Predict the 3D structure of the following.
Amino acid sequence: MPLSALGWDVEPGVVIGCLILIALYGHFTVWRSRWRGALFVAGIAILLLALISPLDTLADQYLFSAHMVQHLLLLEVTAPLLVLGVTTELAEEWLAVPWVARWERRLRNPMAAWAIGFGTLLAWHAPRLYDWAVASDAVHAVEHISFVISAAIFWWPVLAPRASSRMPAHEAVIYLFARLSANIVLGTVLAAAPLGTYAAYAHAPLTQLGWGITAALDQRLGGYLMWAPSLLLDFAAIPLILAIWGSRSMAEETV
């Protein structure tokens, strides 16, 4: 079965939700920074790609590994792009609100942010919860929303626009390395897990795809995808972290 035959699953709720996010971003930032605005819109575009493209159909009905790609896009691409899209002015405006500032201080704590980010990923890969999400559209939506929010919290102390909200560069490198190490462990466990661990894919009609993918290969590939791409992305983020840390301020550019 060619990928084009799977079709696009254009869910109105997802499209409308993404348009609302862009509209709200434009309202609060007035598009002061074009480059940050472009990053935010890129994050929304990747979100749409993950949730309405043929990848979503593959993830829901056929391939565990496709589901891992979908999660990777939400956690490692969408979330950091959305955080990078937040302008300094917007952050300062919101952090002037006492209760927002109080929660931001709590959540930007590296221990808290790391635990929320990886803990959410770990929880949703518990077999029963994972199968529940695949079987229920509502639960699946909650899963995806929680992935984006928890990943944004994870990336905030690394990529926040205000220097006071970011951890030092050397701590950020350790922070990412710790998450990468945890991903390797989780991915290895998933790759080595007995077939049928995820009941949602126990009877997936892989033969209909005609791609020569077996259930065993699909599960191993899904486990490897848990950490291999994030290895590259986390290492690629290090120069960006050093550049952000080295600058004295995150003064906005208006092009």
